[in-house]
Amino acid sequence: MSRHSLKTLQIIVQDDFLAYETRELARLFYPAELTLISVDPNIDETTPVPTLGLLCYSDRAGCRFFCCLKTESHTFTESWFIDGDRVKNHSIDFDQKLFKRDFKKCLFKVMQQWRPRQLPWGILTGVRPVKLAHQLTQQLENDEQVKDSLETHYLISKKKAALLTEVAAVQRPILHRTAPNRVSLYIGIPLCPSRCSYCSFISQPVKGQHDPLLEQYLQALLIELKQAIRWLIEQGRQLDTIYIGGGTPSVFSAKQIHQLMDTLASIYPLHQVREITFEAGRPDTLTLEKLRELHQYPVHRLSINPQTFNDSTLANVNRHHTTHDFYQAWEMALAEGFSLINLDIIIGLPGEGIQHVRHTLKEIEALQPTNLTVHALALKRSSSLAMIGDNQRLDDQTADILMDEIEVMAYSNHMKPYYLYRQKEITGHLENIGYSLPGTECLYNILMMEEKQTILGVGAGAVSKQYFPAQDRIRRIPNPKSIQVYIQRMHEVGFHYKDWESFHK
Ligand code: SF4
């Protein structure tokens, strides 16, 4: 059935606490733009359910959830009793996470009765599923119990439960070695040579290498960078990892890259930083001169992103480079001595079927990279591709087959999965996943994704995350998203010390 012929699904929930989770879970089964959610504290099991409607009621005193979904032809119901031990121990009121989990299970079952769908991540709707595996590892005795809990309590498939525990096991020693006074730095450069049609990021295209915006942005960035790092040093903090990302940082000229790296090196001893990554996302922006600039400094890793090895797809998605550009950049980088190079690819690009992705995999395998990051395309409303028809999208089953083939290829080339995250509207309800040869994991990716260290983000659209180890929580501190507002703010105000008031030694 096409989206145009679908009716609005009216959802009634009892309180705000469950409204968000209901919306997130329901969107796995029904288009989010066609759901209407209302909160009514007076509902109970006898409340009439509209046609096409969903009623979600939780009887906390009786420790029970009830979900009822009514269509023109059927009524589906599901009720769920909260775990007996937790009721006995009177712990349910204090354990909102478990309360939410059980509610989601009840809702998941009723939605599956109505619109059955293969959902390998079960009731999980968040971005960071590995966090759950880490939490369960602390509570349970071994990985087998963790896997069992993921399958039983979160309805995650066997395959994904095994993947999560494996990723968590790779990350554990890395996270244990994280010193509390260390901070990672993210330098955001949201400028690109053109805008990819699937992009939902704030990145702005520049008009060639002489676009004045490049220099204006760099000068604003340097103001924030100098002030932020000096302030960090005053706080007694040390830089653990640096990630220069975007956008496309390699869109800067060699002279501008020199200015950026030289400024960094003049205020901080870069050889003490455990890892520095530079994203050269668009292969056509990388030159020998730029690589030589980077090589003067301890830049450990590059990311060069072919995305696909099919030229017609690259042209379709408005990436102004070819596979030939990629090979040139790759060979130049190797010849200049960069051995840690990540390649990003995307599955689910418009018009790409199983054979296109298999071709990409064949090319990747021949290159034997140390790191490979696989994205399952997620089309957000702000991307120009958001409205492509279903005939242009990869179906769930094919996406799943391809993810499995990538995994087989990665393992047979001695790579292991080391970080993963999920997004809304992701192809095949899958995940984005990073593979690496053991010992070459990108530390920044792990620290940033698992939120176990403070990340100081500079640049337009960068979001700093202040980590409070005692409560194991983070506070987000966003920079302005608009590049023009950011540039103006840096010249007028500079680094926003006030946002970091509670950041003590
Ligand atoms: S390279 Fe990345 S940030 Fe730049 S336009 Fe493409 S998807 Fe967006």
UniProtKB/TrEMBL annotation:
<dbReference type="GO" id="GO:0051989">
    <property type="term" value="F:coproporphyrinogen dehydrogenase activity"/>
</dbReference>
<keyword id="KW-0560">Oxidoreductase</keyword>
<protein>
    <submittedName>
        <fullName>Coproporphyrinogen dehydrogenase HemZ</fullName>
        <ecNumber>1.3.98.3</ecNumber>
    </submittedName>
</protein>
<dbReference type="InterPro" id="IPR006638">
    <property type="entry name" value="Elp3/MiaA/NifB-like_rSAM"/>
</dbReference>
<dbReference type="InterPro" id="IPR023995">
    <property type="entry name" value="HemZ"/>
</dbReference>
<dbReference type="InterPro" id="IPR007197">
    <property type="entry name" value="rSAM"/>
</dbReference>
<dbReference type="InterPro" id="IPR023404">
    <property type="entry name" value="rSAM_horseshoe"/>
</dbReference>
<feature type="domain" description="Radical SAM core">
    <location>
        <begin position="177"/>
        <end position="422"/>
    </location>
</feature>
<dbReference type="InterPro" id="IPR058240">
    <property type="entry name" value="rSAM_sf"/>
</dbReference>
<dbReference type="InterPro" id="IPR034505">
    <property type="entry name" value="Coproporphyrinogen-III_oxidase"/>
</dbReference>
<dbReference type="Pfam" id="PF04055">
    <property type="entry name" value="Radical_SAM"/>
</dbReference>
